[in-house]
Design goal:
The structure is a homodimer of 328-residue chains. The first copy, chain A, is an all-alpha fold and 328 residues long. Helices cover 74% and strands 1% of the residues of chain A. The first copy, chain A, has 16 helices and 2 strands. Chain A is globular and about 65 Å long. Chains A and B meet through helix 4, helix 6 and helix 7 of A and helix 4, helix 6 and helix 7 of B.
Amino acid sequence: MTDYREKYLEMLKIVEQKIDEYVKFKHPTSIYEPFRYIMDSGGKRIRPMLAMICCGAVCGEPERALNGAVAIEILHNFTLAHDDLMDNSPFRRGRQTIHLKWDEPTAILTGDVMVGCAYALLPNFEQNRSASRIYEEFTKALIVVCEGQALDMEFDRKPSVVLADYFEMIEKKTAALLTASAAIGARCGDADEDLLKLIKEYAWNLGIAFQLQDDLLDLTADEANFGKKIGQDIIEGKKTYLILKANEKALDLESRKLLDNFYIHHGLPEEKVPAVRAMMQQYGVFNDIATEIDSFYRIAKSNLEKLPQSEYKEMLCWLTDTLLRRNY
Amino acid sequence: MTDYREKYLEMLKIVEQKIDEYVKFKHPTSIYEPFRYIMDSGGKRIRPMLAMICCGAVCGEPERALNGAVAIEILHNFTLAHDDLMDNSPFRRGRQTIHLKWDEPTAILTGDVMVGCAYALLPNFEQNRSASRIYEEFTKALIVVCEGQALDMEFDRKPSVVLADYFEMIEKKTAALLTASAAIGARCGDADEDLLKLIKEYAWNLGIAFQLQDDLLDLTADEANFGKKIGQDIIEGKKTYLILKANEKALDLESRKLLDNFYIHHGLPEEKVPAVRAMMQQYGVFNDIATEIDSFYRIAKSNLEKLPQSEYKEMLCWLTDTLLRRNY
């Protein structure tokens, strides 16, 4: 397979430039400074890139999706600003979170103004005849992402979470925004309904696989490149696929004790992480999740195969492989 | 002048029904229950009513603006949910605020999903050919209201606020959303640009007068009907028109001491409220604000006069008089 890294980085530069140009230090700086801070703090920019490439895959001119792509990246960062506050997370991408570097009201209000600034970037009807559909995709994503975060928070208080609940949550919290990114990109490229359906299915499957991969990496990543502590989800008491699957399968006394402690204390101390990892290994949970990831990955790839031939289609194949084969 | 109270209440019923019908207990209830709670807690519904009547004033069919009107009311309530949390206010309209009845993350996330639900109500291009303009008005209002709240919060930390800062803040925090309400109503009624300009000017002037009136009522309202404590702004250290004007005018030693204490301690104890009121009286500050209110009121009324004759134009005149002559 061709390596699209160089072409990807070229396109990424255009996205970064647009972000940089749009997110100015406007007045009042008390909200626009933290807005710029969070947008400047890096991140993989997967969502805007997905929008750009999907636009290319249906029409050949990715830059038609540029504003929509940046709108989605702003929406994504808005969710991070508010989620970090709600979860009381001190760091994100190796930097202090907004509510810690400034304060809680600033994190709330910065997130709020970001939503407005994201909407302000979406094309109007004079710029794109699918403007109403693009707005609808964007609004649906905003609503569903909030619902996903609500479910995620409910999980903390609810002992009886099962895998079906988990899949509903990641569908809303992760897959929905990736699907919206792809759909908005394709809409900006005037995709017909058949192409659009394929693109959305692709992105949805990619999104689920991507989140499962994220869960898996929490316990198996190469710590030096990962950017966060190994076992963070276990320490924080997150009910990920791994925990829920282990809870279904583990029967021996020691494993039950470990899991019961995880549930009762909403997480485990760091020194218990190796034991959790050994238990996952023992019960084949890492194999289970790898099988799941592979299954969503295959569907995503088969969706892509049905797209008309183009270098952007190839680029989506390359991106999908790159994202789902990362080990950090 | 005809009393439009009955007709107003009829229209209000339609707005309330639409709110009731739209804001359902959806899943997950952890956010849709507080969403319904805040929408159910009353309020004057001035913004959606303004949208409906302004639509009537340009086209004669107010119900064309119904969805947009409800979208604005949801946006307004979103700002209340987040402002109450940022200001740490325990009560709103005589009921516990969301962050107190539930918790802070719930107040944040409920506000966020409300923004999405508000956007979801705006007409698309198939429903209204001004859809893109309506979206733009709405987005601008969202951004500007956040900027207004940011300025308001900056005021708390800034000793040197002057009346010009105050006017910028209320323009953004209050007048912008009333202007958007009127503009969206008029857009839903396919107003031409001249009519639109008049309607927006009217609402802007009404908004400024309304906020000044609110500041005045804090110290002069009839407490039994007011629904909040007299002098609350003074107790909370809010830099309202009254305080800023008094700070410009008051020179005697006792008044300076009172004002310096207000500035240093970010507010005064309740027992100092009568002294503040006496000082305002002494320096003619109540007269000053009454003159300001009257001046914006007159401009608003003269904007209305230029509208084509209709019962909705009359209704706007009646509403303007009712709002600006209230004593609670």
